[in-house]
Amino acid sequence: MPPQRVFALPRQQSLLLPAVINPFVQDTKLSKAAVIKCVLLGIFLVPLRAILLSLVLMVTWPVSVIITFKHPLKGATEPMRGWRRFMCRRVMAALGRAYYFCMGFRVVVKGKQVSSSEAPILAVAPHSTFFDGIVCIIAGLPSTVSRVENLATPIFGRFVRCLQPVLVSRKDPDSRKNTIQEIDSRAKSRGCWPQVLIFPEGTCTNRSCLITFKQGAFIPGVPVQPVLIRYPNRLDTVTWTVLNRNQLYCPLWEICHSKIKHTSTAECDAANCLQLKTVHANMSVCSALGVPVTDHTYEDCRLMISAGELTLPMEAGLVEFTKISRKLQLKWDSVRKELEGFAAMARSCKGGRITVGEFATFLRLPINSALEELFALFDRNGDGTIDFREYVIGVTILCRPANTEDVLQMAFKLFDTDEDEKITREEFTALLRSTLGVSDLNMTKLFKEIDADGSGFITFSEFQSFAMKHPEYAKLFTTYLELQRYQAIQEALPGDLELSGGTDSGDRQEDSTSDKKDD
Known about the structure:
The chain has 519 residues and is an alpha/beta fold.
């Protein structure tokens, strides 16, 4: 058996696994005693609370109708003033507190909320449940970002109108731009508009970490006051994520107002300043909550849903999209396309992870030294399997750069032994059998797949087109050449290699194809 290189592969530290693998799953397990307690208390408390909530709503709805009487239905050209604003901040806020109290919530507020002129924007995190809406009530009904469809909701649509929300329409292609402009306009109104409350994470998590903040709250370039939410209960029964079970609600909250974050725009350009503010806000909230920051974002949730649609475990779609997209220059559509390719390999695997045998089966190749080394390059954590995150990194960093015109020309010439600019079935079969030990059955299937027009021979354009769709083969080819070169050197100079093995291994570690780059 030919010798194999066994040195450790250098890895880019910033692409290692995050501190929290999946912040979008919550599995609350209730003991039998807790279930019995819920049932017994529910028999008495549920009817009582339902009656109390109905009474509060009967008072709140007429008040909201009075406040919004003859006021624009969709949005507002100017902020509420006078008695309307007073009723929103005092009466509606008091009724909102009563509503949550009837549901069993007790709220503890720490710190001091500043005025709209001091900090026009409130950034609330971590966001984990629809119950987080109580922050709006505690903060005196600031404006929020809301879907335009919410205004048509019976009863509660009137409550939303009292907030004078920044409206988002999924049907309007310019909605994103208009929303940013409206937030910017209100934030720079010098206190005329109420504060704008934003959940910068953009989706719900299980509060085990802080995911990447969306930049919308920081685009205006004005002071932002972070607002922290904690649920100090022993049993978490409020978290509402993409994957959750056994949801009830808990009775205790803590809301903490942090110091306002200022950033000098004179010290950096607009793009860097925007990023700096986002990072500052992340670090502020992180230090107060004592949880790590990860590069997950809402796009990871979309990939989880896509993974489920492709019959993979939903967790397979997690890649830390912010980091992957920034460092590998990938857009969401590109990652989604890679997910489809990964699903073709991993659909029959348990847990959505590929073993070396399944990797070989997909490539229609036997397990050999070249394929094992390629698999090791993909397998970043060395657990003997490849998950989707490792697959995306491997294809982008290892395979696509190897898929160059020169490499494809070299590979094509090796197959084209008679130099007639086409590869016949015999030429294709002879090389693969002698180098990789591919069976006749697999070679026939692979040849037909590359020979797109069914002409019985492969042209360079067909060869190139197939390689672009399957970049793993180009990297496999270069890995095979490296192994052949390594084997030839060992056979030619065995004594020298033994004497200088430590140094040579270290040099080859740096020269070998890997994903080690400057962070």
